[in-house]
Design a protein that fits this description.
- The chain is mainly beta.
- Helix content is 0%, strand content 70%.
- It contains no helices and five strands.
- The chain has a five-stranded antiparallel beta sheet with strand order 1-2-3-4-5, with no helix packed on it.
- A hairpin with a 2-residue loop joins strand 1 (4-15) and strand 2 (18-33).
Length: 79
Amino acid sequence: MLPSRENTKEGEVRTPAGDFDCIKIYTDSQVKFMLFSEKEYSMSWYAQGIGLVKKEIYTKRGKLLKSMTLDIIRKPGHN
């Protein structure tokens, strides 16, 4: 089963790397492990010129499985 995606809204997201104007994308997917199958969904926030700045993955019952945020932005040549 392919994931279904839906643009939900735009808004500001705060991360350790800063505040970003983002578009939020909601995704439903079916995860399969051998004989076991589980439905989960995720919300991802993307900022123009940056890319993914935050992502949260939830079970079908709404339990947070994983959360990722952008911590730092390094410019090329500035380690």
